[in-house]
Amino acid sequence: MASERSSIDHPIDDIDKEVDEELATGISKESAALAETAVRRNKHKGKVHRQNSKDNVVASSFVQGPRQWKNSRRSRNGYGRGLPKKGGAGGKGVWGKPGSELLETYEDVNDPNFDNENMSNGDIELKVVVPEVSDEEIKKKVEPIVLEYFENGDTQEAILSIEEQIPWNRRDALVEQVIEIALDHKPSHREMTSVLISDLFPHVISEADISKAFESLLANINDLMLDVPDAPTVIGNFIARAIADDCIPPKFIHTMKEKSDQKDFQEALIHADTLLSMKHGLVRLHNVWGVGGALRPVKALTRQMSLLLQEFLSSSDIEEASRCLRLLEVPHFHHELVYEAIVMALEANSAVKEETLCTLLKAFSDQVLITTDQMERGFLRVFDDLPDISMDVPLAYIILDRFVDRCHKLGFLTETILKKLPSRGRKRFVSEGDQDVIRRNKIEH
């Protein structure tokens, strides 16, 4: 029975194999025929369309784009969001994924300094190299920064410019150049310089930078005196102010005194020591340069102008008076000086002082220290206040007429002032005998 079954089973298996081979051959022939037909059709149309293997959809359903999409690297199978393949990193001739250039190491074999052996030995050590900058280059970079700071007074902007342009190893030359520039400017600019140094410390400049800068300035003090005769006093003020602002320690003065016996060198240090030794010295040093220009209170300016006029009456030094007026730096407030000069002449009631004050106003007008509008404003202020002034000075109207006449003869008064000069009418008490004479004159006229 077993032999019969095996004999029966083998023919059946052979039949199945033959059927399967015929089916596979037929299918392959059929698919080959279909492929040849598709190739012929596509050749006739001029372009081969690919099949989509995912859903077995004929590729002819894909909508072709315009010609400018020819070199596009987006997916062309009709699926996806239209993004580049592999994030832009795939394909020939592409730039690669954004940021990938930072992860790659480039070695140029044609570089004459290229050494393939040392590159892999770990013998190469990379260090930060700060280029050497000369004093002339530092000066060229610092000067525009400081001059712009003098214009706007913005320390934050100056700090950003310094950090960007001045290397950290030359910050001592920076401090030195800033102070040298301030020597050629007004006291208000020197005050701004002290404020800038205080704001730069300690984040931008260090104590060693400031100390080294002052040491260099003291060593070159003779050269500085050629342009600034009072350089020892000014540098002494800078040193004392830096100590008051806690930028350098007080022992700096005593340390520097031992380094040189030169006269001007010692004079600057002695002056700084004197400022620090006086009563409430640290507090007063905050105003060592004075309060600049319009920031000064009106009462303080008025007092300074009054002292200027009093000193001129005693010395008659026009140049000194001109220098003091310039140092006040308030050209918009010069009418106050004219007002004070006229009131001083009215109160003095002296021909000599009137002549002296007229000479001073004439000099200021010729030098254009006091402009025409400031001169007019000062005189017109006196004209408006004359009724109140005459209560303390009964002869104020008479003295003012005389003073204006003196100034007019010198030739610096305008016609506006002469036209607005006030005159005080006198009240006449008519007696009984004069009444008839006055009536007759009225009737005749």
TrEMBL record:
Residues 36-96 are annotated as: Disordered. Residues 40-51 have a biased composition (Basic residues). Residues 79-96 have a biased composition (Gly residues). SUPFAM superfamilies: ARM repeat. It is found in: Cytoplasm. PROSITE patterns: MI (PS51366). One of its GO terms (cellular component) is cytosol. Belongs to the PDCD4 family. This is Programmed cell death protein 4.
